[in-house]
Amino acid sequence: MSIECDIVVVGGGPGGYVAAIRGAQLGARVVLIERENLGGTCLNWGCIPSKALIESAERYQALQHAGDFGLSTGQVGFDFAAVHARKTRIVKQLRTGVEGLVRGNGITLLKGTGSFLDRTRLSVRMADGAGEDVRARKVIIASGSIEARPPIEGIDSPGVMTSREALQLEQVPRSIIIVGGGPVGVEFATVYNAFGSQVTVVEMMPTLLPLSDADLGKALAQAFTKRGMNVRVDTRVNRIAPHEQGYAVSIESSAGAETLTAEKVLNAVGRVPYTEGLGLERIGVALSRRAIKVDAAMRTNLPDVYAIGDVVGGPYRLAHVGATEGEVAVEHALGQPSEMDYRAVPEPIFCSPQVAGVGMTEQRAAEAGHPVKVGRFPWAANSKALSSGETEGFVKVVCEAQYGQILGVHIIGPHATDLIAEAALAINLESTVEDLAKTIHAHPTLPEAVRESALAAGERAVHVLMRKRR
Q1: Which residue from 94, 97, 202, 257 has the highest number of Cβ atoms inside 10 Å of its Cβ?
Q2: Comparing C-alpha atoms, which of 322, 224, 233 is closest to residue 9?
Q3: Is it true that 163-269 and 347-457 share their CATH fold?
């Protein structure tokens, strides 16, 4: 049997299903191929379930500190199996919603694995063993990514977890070593620490969150240490081996070699593009290492084939980026002028304290040749943060020195992942720190700290002492 359509999307993650829906909105006949569950890694094994766990962890910690607010709660406890069950319910509800959106937009959903026969024809091996041929005018590859396997002896040992296995745990481990201090690693560190695990985070680079502004990674390490975690940066993992207490992890740093032990080990070093079984070599799609090469319209070297999301690699392997790339790809494929602009990509990290950034870090701005000014404002000087009992961290704005154009904003502290939206809009509109400073912010609120950081770039913040101008 052969199905004819305008666009076929391979992969039903946040990039793929959004591309399919956008295509249907524009009147195209769309086929969506997904071998597992709609929503991809993000909805089923990543963003959503991890945030559900983090929300439970943060509320549990808040209850433990109720006395700081003059409240009595009695003995506070938790049922991690119930926490796990709540997470599963949320994922199921959202997945059902996505399925309803796909059906409601008239998209043909094929549950199976697609492989190219030629540039615009795919063979689909269905989950029930049946086969389908799909012919399309345009193809969008949205096959996502898989967990990276770094060259560490024993990383493939039975029981060494990836994030997927970690999300299925129904009991809190007594102790855990997390290999990798990027977003995935620090988010799981937050969850396990909150529920009483002895947590060690090992990161090879000099700071946690090595792709973020260095000041954020340093501040997060201090906050983690204050919470009782063991943070090892500039440290390499050489070997993981079974041990009577679980696992022995051999590490090495400038201080020398050491062996740590823990009940569980989590591999959280990142993800790599997934192209296995697509038959890309059959049609000649160009790759850069494992990633599919694309232009600003998400078009590959073949004019009828596009690629979006994690499979194209790059620094922004984020669900909201994949979704935007999906919209761009399908619009361009259907003849509309559409291109990606990565200048204002918000990067939220849901650890505790929260971290978020958008635009250039201070280091990257300097490397790009920009003379820069930096403004910082501490949460300890913000009335709403003080009232909420969340005073760790700061807001940092990086701007061009002469004209004040905002190049980047970086936040560690309360609701950073929400507050970053204002900064993303400012960068997208090519605003200056003066524009941000002249925008009236409600009092008492957290966003006032964003304005104060802009004022600080001009050495005129109101609620912290600034050095006097000469």
Answers
A1: 202
A2: 322
A3: no
Residue 45 amino acid letter = W
Q: List C-alpha distances in Å: 303 to 16, 41, 199, 329, 447.
A: 19, 28, 49, 12, 45
List pLDDT tens digits, range 220-238.
999 999 999 999 999 999 9
pTM for this structure? 0.94
Residue 470 has pLDDT above 50, yes or no: no
CATH architecture of 163-269: 3-Layer(bba) Sandwich (3.50)
Return the CATH number of the domain spanning residue range 2-146+272-333: 3.50.50.60
Is 240:217 a contact under the CB 8 Å cutoff? Answer: no
- Reply yes or no on whether the pLDDT at 162 is more than 80: yes
- Do you find a cis peptide bond into 346, omega within 30 degrees of 0? no
Which amino acid is located at 438 in the chain? K
Architecture category of domain 347-457 in CATH: 2-Layer Sandwich (3.30)
Length of the chain: 470
Report the relative pairing of strands 145-147 and 30-34 from DSSP bridges. unpaired
pLDDT at 420 over 80: yes
Count CB neighbours of 11 within 10 A.
32
Least confident range of 124-128, 182-186, 188-192: 124-128
pLDDT at residue 130, as a whole number: 84
Question: Which tokens belong to 399?
Answer: 């701007």
Residue with tokens 């919470």: 227
The residue ranges of every structural domain in the chain are 2-146+272-333, 163-269, 347-457
